[in-house]
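Subject: design request, 364 residues
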């Protein structure tokens, strides 16, 4: 073999190692965890959020979100990255805003390395007035859109230190909870909010030691946003694995307006509790392919006057036939509670417990 050919081969191998460092011979893969939005209003600015992770830390030359119309024309979101490191812990890209004419588009994440461009799995972006046809958003527009792209400034949209749903404002020990609310337990930015619970030395009214944890609610905020009859609310949430975790997305006002979009307990890893506390109805929705440890799940509820309809990953899974009545309104709550151990296991260690969400949206 000629010396120059050897040099060329060694250089090519070195480029591959630099682009995908790790164990010799092991291919590093980049996986798309989530991509939003899947719908938008015509000619209205919207940003995209792409979440990815890799099997080993890797540096890519570019990461972005591409969009093509039915003729192949380019409507890519601006704000792709330059060189960025992606690791197993994940990386979230929030793009700049883009506007789209009404229509159906193909949307996909992509990255560039030394070998060129690589497309991640695609989805359909529907741009239509009044939400996406054939879904619970049909005929509706976004009334509330929280995508956690920056740190929360408490007081304007969200409050984190108290809720009337808790007996003592910041704790609710008689509901089998170890919660002690602390705004510092809530961190947001880059398209994700994360609640982190940790053991505390504070003793609650039930005689048990509290865990500081996070809750955000629209109650008491300047905006004071409330969901109401005929609204559709949806959250995109990550299922935790630690025993004691009790995440939920729900509504509350005056003690008689609670609708649980979902509650989750890791001792039942494939089950979501869907509950109407206004006109008693409940379903234990079980789906091992959609719900489980480490899975991102879209969970929503349509507050019909005569029936509340629950959706998981865009599919209707339960209609309660009871509804919320015509005058329903309530505040939004997203939180991570910690079980005290009566109905579900309490934490098995003193290690922090976390729960994350990508967005909360309300359509009306």
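Subject: RE: design request

Done. Sequence follows.
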């Amino acid at each position: 073999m000629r010396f120059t050919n050897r040099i060329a081969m060694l250089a090519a191998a070195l480029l591959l190692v630099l682009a995908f460092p790790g164990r010799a011979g092991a291919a590093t893969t980049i996986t798309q965890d989530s991509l939003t939005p899947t719908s938008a209003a015509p000619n209205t600015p919207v940003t995209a959020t792409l979440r990815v992770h890799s099997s080993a830390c890797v540096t890519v030359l570019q990461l972005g979100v591409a969009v093509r119309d039915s003729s192949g024309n380019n409507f890519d979101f601006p704000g792709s990255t330059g060189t960025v490191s992606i690791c197993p812990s994940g990386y979230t890209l929030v793009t700049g805003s883009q506007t789209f004419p009404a229509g159906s588009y193909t949307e996909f994440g992509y990255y560039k390395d030394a070998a060129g461009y690589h497309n991640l799995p695609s989805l359909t972006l529907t741009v239509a007035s009044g939400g996406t046809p054939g879904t619970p958003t049909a005929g509706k527009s976004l009334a509330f859109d929280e995508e956690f792209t920056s740190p929360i400034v408490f007081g304007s949209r969200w409050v984190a230190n108290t809720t009337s749903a808790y007996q003592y404002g910041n704790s609710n020990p008689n509901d089998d909870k170890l919660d002690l609310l602390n705004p510092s337990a809530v961190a947001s930015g880059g398209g994700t909010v994360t609640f982190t619970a940790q053991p505390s030395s504070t003793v609650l009214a039930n005689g048990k030691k509290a865990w500081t944890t996070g809750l955000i609610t629209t109650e008491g905020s300047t905006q004071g946003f409330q969901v109401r009859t005929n609204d559709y609310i949806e959250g995109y949430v990550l299922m935790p694995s630690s025993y004691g975790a009790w995440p939920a997305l729900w509504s509350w006002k005056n003690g008689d307006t609670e609708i649980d979009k979902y509650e989750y307990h890791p001792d039942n890893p494939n089950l979501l509790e869907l509950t109407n506390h206004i006109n008693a109805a409940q379903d234990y929705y079980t789906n091992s392919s959609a719900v489980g440890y480490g899975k991102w799940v879209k969970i929503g509820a349509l507050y019909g006057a005569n029936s509340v309809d629950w959706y998981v990953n865009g599919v209707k899974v339960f209609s309660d036939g009871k509804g919320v009545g015509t005058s329903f309104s309530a505040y939004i709550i997203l939180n991570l509670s910690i079980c005290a151990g009566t109905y579900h296991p309490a934490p098995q260690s003193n290690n922090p417990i976390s729960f994350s969400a990508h967005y909360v949206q309300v359509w009306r």
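Residues 1-25 have pLDDT under 50 and may be disordered.
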